[in-house]
Specification:
single chain; alpha+beta; two-stranded antiparallel sheet; 8 strands; 4-stranded mixed β-sheet; 9 helices; 47% helix
């Protein structure tokens, strides 16, 4: 077999060299573009679901929601793909003098501020939720005066939070949460007020897991199995605006701005203290 004739002229060699250099220059750009595209696809498929919880520390309904529903969702891993924001303010108000009053009295204002300081001191949601859970568990079990024991129980240094709530920084955080609450569209009607992916859940907040599973981009976690099917019925109620006569559970949330509310007394569902 004969070998093919190879043109070794200077013009041909120069042209091939030019093509080689051009290809070498383009390869890094192509690799960068490919990596960027892959990164964009990954970011889209793993985008976290926004979950906002507006609540107040001594509201029994807020406390039960934290202890019974949210804690389970954290434990099950359902919230691993969620960006959870806690806003401890609820139905508090700021008067013309700048003084803040809370629905369940001054102790609630204190604990709202303590929890705001914890969120600020420990940005990791798993850390500050552990602290919030501990306090709200104390509230549920009528031991809220022992809230400071939560530092030791959670293995946390109390100095940052103590310095915060005893200073102007704690007040500024509380006011910031008040502004966040006031900017809600539509305005909150009671607490806890849960917003998933920008949509308020109204009275159906206890079924928040179904909404989170529906909002997941990509494959939802195992904890979502069996929950997605509940969403259409729930969503029909919310989208229809049927919020007045519908409640998925036996909890009647604390109403925002309700007349006749005893601000110094925590009223349970059964009417007890």
């Amino acid at each position: 077999m004969l070998c093919p004739l190879i043109d070794l002229s200077s013009n041909t060699m120069a042209a091939r060299l030019h093509h080689f250099l051009l290809l070498a220059a383009l390869l890094p750009l192509l690799a960068t573009a490919s990596a960027s595209t892959a990164g964009d696809i990954a970011a889209t498929s793993t985008k976290k679901v926004r979950v906002e919880v507006y609540y107040e520390s001594l509201c029994p309904y807020s406390a039960r929601f934290v202890v019974n529903q949210l804690a389970r969702a954290f434990k099950d891993g359902l919230l691993d793909g969620a960006d959870v924001t806690f806003v401890p303010y609820g139905n508090a108000k700021v008067g013309a003098s700048g003084a803040m009053s809370c629905q369940h009295g001054s102790e609630e204002c204190l604990l709202n501020t303590v929890e705001a300081c914890a969120i600020d001191a420990w940005p990791d949601v798993n850390v500050h939720f552990g602290f919030i859970y501990c306090i709200e568990d104390m509230v549920v079990n009528n031991r809220r005066s022992e809230w400071e024991s939560c530092f030791q129980k959670q293995g946390l240094d109390p100095s940052l939070v103590t310095k915060c709530y005893k200073s102007g920084h704690g007040v500024r955080l509380a006011l910031k949460h008040g502004r966040q609450t006031a900017q809600l569209v539509p305005p909150h009607k009671f607490v806890p007020w849960v917003v998933v992916d920008g949509k308020p859940l109204y009275n159906d907040y206890r079924n928040f897991e179904s909404y989170i599973c529906k909002a997941y981009k990509g494959n939802p976690p195992k904890a979502c199995q069996g929950l997605e099917g509940q969403y259409p019925i729930i969503q029909q109620v919310v989208e229809a605006g049927n919020i007045g006569g519908y409640n998925s559970g036996d909890i009647e949330p604390d109403l925002a701005g309700e007349e006749g509310v005893d601000n110094d007394k925590m009223v349970l569902a059964d009417g007890g203290d």
